[in-house]
Write a structure and sequence with these properties.
- This protein has 517 residues and is mostly helical.
- It has 25 helices and six strands.
- The protein has helices at 11-18, 32-35, 41-69, 77-89, 92-101, 104-113, 116-126, 132-135, 140-149, 152-156, 164-171, 176-184, 188-198, 205-208, 222-231, 257-261, 269-272, 286-296, 316-334, 346-372, 375-380, 383-411, 420-450, 453-483, 488-516, and strands spanning 215-217, 241-245, 251-256, 280-281, 300-304, 310-315.
- The strands form two sheets. Strands 1-2-3 form a three-stranded mixed β-sheet. Strands 4-5-6 form a three-stranded mixed β-sheet.
- α15 (222-231) links the parallel β1 (215-217) and β2.
- The chain starts with 10 loop residues before the first helix and ends with a helix.
């Protein structure tokens, strides 16, 4: 894709100059009689266009300028404004030129970060010229919304330029009728490959893999292999290794392209292949694939079926995208947030966040019931009501810190049965150490604030106990949830917060009853 020459005027800027928009002086402005005359249709159109441009610039700043400002390689403010100008003025040709010059990943970012209304207008204006490669870069939630607005017939023709894994990503959640329309436009071999991939479990290596690959028997020579690749009409656009297979189409080794290029033509592939390599089965989870690529620094890896026969390959770009998705999912779930994007509607986001807020309400009521057990003590010592949020808040924050480390360690497989006890002990000691340190601080605060050494002692005892419990809860709860098959990232935060609140209030108020009353 050719970059726009900065010395050439932008299409919109050029049309603006030609239409006289660069001048603030309207025709006849110096003639009083003409000034009072009815404006011509051309003048009205010019003013309307000018007004639309101003509105577009304002909306561009509101919608996406802040988001893109944080990214070094994304679109700049001028590019964004030009898109909105073309959108407001209905200039389809200018919009097409602008969006065609974007990298597909940047264009996908733009579609994700603008409002639903603006996104729908862009899709409607581009129509069949909206490339499928852009949609393959969208997050799932945005992708599904965009696909609902596109005529499958318009999109189907551009599927031929995509790899099988990208086609699978686009059609996997479509209705059967729309999916059939898309697949009918593929060549017979590609259609079979996509249909086979769709038969594998979602978020598996079978869905993630590409069917386009280069393989060869071990007895081929380097020269024969090079000649075969040069003569091939359907060679993959990007590949890094030649997969060596036996007579049953089972992988037995890999030959990096760099080694092929640096070896004499008469040498057989069997002599230069690597027989120690990583491969995946079609039903392996994509998070396991992503972990292996990251852990073992893989560039590419073959994928085999249940019989061990070669069926595809996974490249590092697909694995890293899966790794990014898994990390993002864990981060969102830790905050009790589902799969949502910046462009989602208010009702949709509210509905997705509601369940865990409801769970949080239930746990908050439980903490309130604990407080209710000591209502008479609070009536007698009003200072207890003032100070008890300190204990619960410190415990909650300490528990969240430990929880975040634990969930991430579980996801990256750094926290295992081998080192679990050592990590649990470490987090317990960290909680105890911080508890003792802050016990001294809050004890001094309690004595100075309310002039009561005993109240300071109550605060100190509650702080030590709750910080210790917070460290234990933050590590034990996610480990326990993983043991029973639950997602630690999804449910841990609510349980940890509940434990620290209940224990914090109970210990603080219970100690106060024993010491002060």
């Amino acid at each position: 894709m050719a970059d726009h020459d900065p010395t050439e005027p932008d299409p919109i800027e050029r049309s603006t100059i030609e239409n006289g928009e660069a001048s603030d002086t309207d025709a006849g402005a110096g003639n009083p009689e003409e000034a009072t005359a009815e404006p011509s249709p051309e003048e009205l159109a010019r003013k309307a266009a000018k007004k639309a441009r101003k509105k577009a610039k304002r909306r561009a700043r509101e919608h996406v300028a802040e988001a893109f400002a944080q990214k070094s390689f994304a679109l700049d403010q001028n590019q964004i404004e030009r898109v909105f100008i073309a959108l407001e003025t209905g200039d389809r040709e200018a919009l097409l030129k602008l969006t065609s010059a974007f990298h597909e990943a940047d264009f996908a970012d733009l579609l994700e970060q603008i409002s639903n209304e603006d996104r729908s207008r862009i899709i409607e204006m581009l129509g069949p010229d909206l490339q499928a490669i852009v949609l393959s870069e969208l997050k799932e939630s945005t992708r599904d919304e965009v696909l609902e607005q596109i005529d499958p017939e318009d999109l189907a023709s551009s599927l031929k330029d995509l790899d099988t894994d990208e086609v699978v990503y686009l059609v996997e959640d479509m209705e059967e009728e729309d999916q059939a329309v898309m697949l009918d436009n593929l060549e017979a071999g590609e259609r079979v490959a996509v249909e086979q991939a769709l038969a594998y479990p979602e978020y598996s290596a079978g869905r993630l893999m590409q069917r386009e690959m280069v393989w060869a028997p071990a007895f081929k020579t380097v020269g024969e292999m090079i000649d075969m690749m040069r003569a091939a009409e359907d060679l993959p656009d990007e590949f890094y290794e030649i997969i060596i297979v036996d007579a049953a189409m089972k992988p037995i080794g890999l030959v990096p392209l760099s080694r092929v290029m640096g070896t004499r033509r008469e040498v057989r592939l069997s002599q230069i292949m690597e027989d120690k390599y990583t491969q995946f089965t079609v039903d392996q989870k994509q998070e396991e694939v992503a972990y292996a690529f990251n852990q073992y620094h893989l560039i590419s890896a073959p994928v085999v079926d249940e019989n061990g026969r070669l069926v595809g390959r996974i490249n590092i770009d697909d694995a890293m995208q899966a790794l990014d998705e898994e990390a993002e999912e864990d981060l969102l779930r830790l905050g009790g947030v589902g799969d949502e994007s910046l462009g989602d509607a208010v009702a949709k986001i509210a509905w997705r966040r509601f369940p865990w807020l409801a769970v949080n309400l239930a746990t908050a009521i439980l903490a309130s019931l604990v407080i209710g057990l000591f209502d008479r003590a609070i009536e007698q010592v009003v200072a207890l009501a003032v100070l008890m949020p300190i204990v619960a808040s410190m415990g909650g924050n300490a528990g969240t810190q430990t929880l975040t480390v634990a969930v991430r360690a579980l996801a990256t497989k750094d926290l295992t049965a081998t080192n679990a006890m050592r990590i649990i002990t470490r987090e317990t000691l960290v909680g105890l150490a911080n508890g003792l340190a802050f016990a001294v601080v809050v004890a001094i605060i309690g004595m100075i604030w309310f002039g009561s050494p005993l109240l300071g002692l109550v605060l100190a005892v509650a702080m030590v106990v709750n910080m210790l419990v917070a460290g234990l809860a933050g590590i034990l709860i996610p480990i326990g949830l993983e043991k029973i098959g639950a997602d630690p990232a999804l449910a841990s935060a609510v349980f940890v917060t509940t434990v620290t609140d209940v224990v914090g209030f109970f210990v603080f108020l219970g100690t106060a009853v024993l010491i002060l009353l």
